Amino acid sequence: ACALKESWRQRLCAVNFMKSFVMATTGTTEADDKGIRTIGELLMKLEAAVDKELLYPALITLWILSADPVPTVSQEAQLVWHQAIPNTGNLLRNTMDILLERISVFTHSEYEVVRTVGAYAMANSIRKLKTRFLKKCFECIEEQLDEQDIDAVHGAILDIHLMIELLTQEEKIHVCEMLAPFLSSPFTIIRQESFEAFVQMRDSLGEQ
């Protein structure tokens, strides 16, 4: 629950909890983590000790928090992630549905900063997983844009805004069409985010 709080200190608390959880479960300390262990040893210990239905959502939440815009949170999350996960791409590929579900929880948050964390995490995940994940993201975003909840719609537009540089020209045109109806939204936060994303998208398309 702390991972979804507006205060960065509470999100940091979630990271520190995961850090303590990893160390307690695997019987290690920070001093042990000096590159001496076999690569992947911590993850293997975690998978042996914890039900995967609990473990993977927790690990994915840690990955999402590694995209936090507050450096104190993101840097600590990245440190714990790299201690435990030997191959980021492999783990994310094997947990893609969990990844999307957890990102969606963040981008549906009532807090704008939490929605932003989720959107940054989606962009980072696309960088790792490429086209297959991007296609799934588009499906989720389109569904989220149809929701009645203002926070959910804003979260979906944030997703689009933060992935612009990762899109092909054709994908950018498609996204412009997705954003167009929201440029006249009666809600300032929706209208403003849509406009900023639309302008950035249009500028990146150049003369095309």
Provide an overview of this structure:
This protein is mainly α and 208 residues long. The chain is built from 11 helices and no strands.
Q: Can you lay out the helices and strands and say which pair or pack?
A:
Layout: H1 8-26, H2 41-49, H3 52-65, H4 71-84, H5 88-94, H6 96-107, H7 112-129, H8 131-145, H9 150-163, H10 169-179, H11 188-205
Task: Provide keyphrases for this structure.
single chain; 208 residues; mainly alpha; elongated
Q: Based on the structure, what is the oligomeric state of the protein chains?
A: single chain
Which stretches are low in confidence, meaning pLDDT under 50 for 5 or more residues running? none
- Strand composition percent: under 5%
What is the first-to-last residue Cα distance? 45 Å
The total beta strand count reads: 0
Helix-strand topology string:
HHHHHHHHHHH
Q: Helicity range of the residues? A: over 70%
Radius of gyration: 18 Å
Structural class: mainly alpha
What's the number of helices? 11
Mean pLDDT equals 91
Biggest sheet character: none
- Which word captures the global form? elongated
What's this model, at a glance?
Helices cover 73% and strands 0% of the residues. The chain is built from eleven helices and no strands.
